[in-house]
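Progress note, sequence design subtask.
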């Protein structure tokens, strides 16, 4: 966007908006986390929760991946409509409104056809996805899928609304609206879940939440001057053609990750009841700290990368990339240590109540332990992908991600079918695929520019050395605590988690300072300077 490259003041404005989005994302994830705790309390890790999460994967493709903030429908809307709206103060002209109507009409028709197929053949669809599951699970998932059919149509429309609102610099509403669904699920679960033996209330709550997302967006879009009238002129509109050219590869790219999930669903259905639910909760626990960390740093970094690419300042890109990824690595290693040492305790503290028993707790923790191996490559992959996007290259990340589908399938066969690793095998294969994607993308970027990874990985080696020492000390402390401390369960878990956190930070940070790791030294000097100013 032009505001990114028009000067320091504009860049600062973009960064402030990006940080605001990051804060709202944190709030959204926090409420989403509370939603998961409520669902776990009432439904546990069971056949019912599995059926819901299996069924939800299909409509979520539309609502979250395709129609979410940053998704293809939002991105295509911003890319095309922003060029056609010269002034944000004026109402859209007839040409813009006609394009809006055409895009909306095509979106509604496309997703309506998919919805009809999903509504008519839910049993067949779920039978393919969870072929290893019981007939009862397939039947229950099929009913959940029918209830959530409207999410498909809503997802595309919401994506267009997001794009329009963001063009007009209304950042808050698109990023806040996912909270509405979480709140709807929490409210309905609390009211009806105690008597809901098949999870229908959960599916209806999800549908109601999606409808509310649409409802709260619509008044603002209409107030801006956009009016929808069915328009079927799909062939003679060059702007609509441009939207389609942007949309098609972006949809393919977004669905690749979903294919990975379907591969996992296929193998997980043969493991045990509650396995898919456990993997879902493990991913949510994983995404809570890691997703917030990555969002907080990469949202403001992305426009900086774009500006530097436009200026052909490749030294600047290398500098910002190494600093940004280095800080992410520095923060990620304590998260890995925490998951390995007190991950089971955290899952028990947060989820183990009501229908969520000790077995479910262990399943989630097991999945989380193996998933923790993906944190460092996950951080690197997401960061280097932003560099590709800054060069207007979304094709390379798509090809790399698509090629890894075969690897994912083969690894699942080895870990699940041959080695019988269960849940841990699913998340271990995810970690290895993430590592593969990170390595390939890191190497292929040479076609755009040369990166200076040497300093980054020297610092990473220092961090890992400090991390290993810290891990050993934390494990010893956790073992001694478990053996010698006797307290009521809740107090026991809270004190243990806080104690390990304090020990981890208290050992890890000084070790990095002793080894003169760049980011730790810079962070310490900034804190000293800030503390000195306060006195």
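Output:
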């Amino acid at each position: 966007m032009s505001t990114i490259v028009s000067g320091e003041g504009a860049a600062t404005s973009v960064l402030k908006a990006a940080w605001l989005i990051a804060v709202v994302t944190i709030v959204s994830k926090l409420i989403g986390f509370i939603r998961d705790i409520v669902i776990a309390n009432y439904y546990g890790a069971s056949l019912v929760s599995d059926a819901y999460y299996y069924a939800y994967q299909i409509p979520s493709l539309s609502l979250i991946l395709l129609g979410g903030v940053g998704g293809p429908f939002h991105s295509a809307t911003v890319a095309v409509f922003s060029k056609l709206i010269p002034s944000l103060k004026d109402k859209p002209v007839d040409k813009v409104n006609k394009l809006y109507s055409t895009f909306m009409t095509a979106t509604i028709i496309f997703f309506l056809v998919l919805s009809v197929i999903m509504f008519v053949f839910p049993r067949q669809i779920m039978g393919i996805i969870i072929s290893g599951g019981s007939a009862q699970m397939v039947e229950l998932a099929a009913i959940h899928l029918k209830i959530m059919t409207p999410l498909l149509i809503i997802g595309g429309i919401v994506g267009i609304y997001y794009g329009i609102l963001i063009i007009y610099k209304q950042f808050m509403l698109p990023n806040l609206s996912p909270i509405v669904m979480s709140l709807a699920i929490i409210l309905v679960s609390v009211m009806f879940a105690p008597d809901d033996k098949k999870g229908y209330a959960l599916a209806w709550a999800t549908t109601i939440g999606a409808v509310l997302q649409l409802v709260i967006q619509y008044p603002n879009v209409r107030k801006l001057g956009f009016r929808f009238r069915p328009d079927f002129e799909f062939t003679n509109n060059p702007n609509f053609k441009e939207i389609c050219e942007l949309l098609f590869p972006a949809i393919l790219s977004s669905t690749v990750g979903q294919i990975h999930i379907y591969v996992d669903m296929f193998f997980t259905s043969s493991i045990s009841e509650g396995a898919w639910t456990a993997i879902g909760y493990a991913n949510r626990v994983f995404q809570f700290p890691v997703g917030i960390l990555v969002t907080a740093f990469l949202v403001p970094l992305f426009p900086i990368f774009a500006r530097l690419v436009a200026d052909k300042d490749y030294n600047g890109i290398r500098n910002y990339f190494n600093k940004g990824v280095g800080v992410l690595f520095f923060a990620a290693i304590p998260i890995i240590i925490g998951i390995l040492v007190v991950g089971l305790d955290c899952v028990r503290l947060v989820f183990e109540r009501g229908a969520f028993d000790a077995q479910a707790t262990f399943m989630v923790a097991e999945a989380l332990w193996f998933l923790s191996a993906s944190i460092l490559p996950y951080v690197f992959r997401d960061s280097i992908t932003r560099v590709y996007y800054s060069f207007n290259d979304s094709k390379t990340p798509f090809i790399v991600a698509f090629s890894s589908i075969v690897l994912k399938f083969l690894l699942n066969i080895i870990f699940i079918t041959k080695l019988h690793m269960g849940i841990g095998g699913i998340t271990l294969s995810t970690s290895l695929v993430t590592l593969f994607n990170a390595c390939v993308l890191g190497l292929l970027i040479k076609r755009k520019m040369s990166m200076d990874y040497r300093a980054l990985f020297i610092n990473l080696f220092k961090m890992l050395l400090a991390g290993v020492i810290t891990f050993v000390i934390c494990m010893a402390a956790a073992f001694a605590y478990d053996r010698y401390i006797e307290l009521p369960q809740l107090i026991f878990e809270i004190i243990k988690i806080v104690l390990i956190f304090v020990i981890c930070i208290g050992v890890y940070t000084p070790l990095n300072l002793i080894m003169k790791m760049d980011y730790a030294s810079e962070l310490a000097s900034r804190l000293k300077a800030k503390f000195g100013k306060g006195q």
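Confidence is low (pLDDT under 50) at residues 1-15. Work on this subtask will continue into the next period as scheduled.
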